[in-house]
Design a protein that fits this description.
The protein is mainly α. It has a single domain, classed as Four Helix Bundle (Hemerythrin (Met), subunit A). Helix content is 85%, strand content 0%. The chain is elongated, with a radius of gyration of 24 Å.
Length: 173
């Protein structure tokens, strides 16, 4: 094979492989996005049922919790949508042959700010839920929050004796 024929063959191979790569990444993003919303809805329903059961909510409290959750979902949906767009933009930029780090750093900062908004809205939602709990429910609710989002929650690697550590933390404060 002469040089030009090899070059043409290599060029077409790179183009075809790039198209395949883009198709794979696009397919992964599509399925990730569609499965996230289904999974999120299912998770929120399970969380509401768990709260109802664990706290022994009255029908009125259950109604208020659902209102709080609906309001929370409405307020956070645009933030989740923005987060998803930023992540997609980051993936696109990273897929370039020479990604622009200033764009990537800006996107990282914007994602961080959006996460901060979500955390603030989560705090506001938890405070609303706490405001309608009885003192007995409040103790259980605080324990559930400690288990779910506290330092030894599911997002952390350490797997302690949660009830023991929670009691220890409460005694220190």
């Amino acid at each position: 094979m002469n040089y030009f024929l090899k070059l043409r063959f290599t060029t077409w191979t790179v183009i075809i492989l790039s198209i395949i790569l883009l198709a794979v990444v696009g397919t992964m993003l599509f399925f990730t996005l569609t499965n996230k919303s289904k999974e999120q809805s299912r998770h929120q329903g399970q969380f509401g049922q768990m709260l109802k059961k664990e706290l022994g909510l009255s029908p009125e409290q259950e109604k208020r919790f659902k209102e709080f959750r609906t309001e929370f979902e409405q307020v956070t949906k645009p933030v989740f949508d923005s987060l998803e767009k930023k992540r997609i933009a980051m993936v696109k930029e990273l897929s370039h042959s020479k990604p622009d780090t200033s764009i990537l750093y800006r996107l990282s900062d914007e994602i961080g700010l959006l996460h901060a908004q979500l955390k603030r809205r989560t705090v506001d939602n938890i405070l609303k839920m706490k405001s309608i709990c009885t003192p007995e429910q409040l103790k259980k609710f605080e324990f559930l929050n400690q288990r779910l989002i506290g330092p030894e929650g599911p997002m952390h690697r350490r797997v302690p004796d949660k009830e023991k550590d929670f009691k220890h933390d409460r005694e220190r404060h």
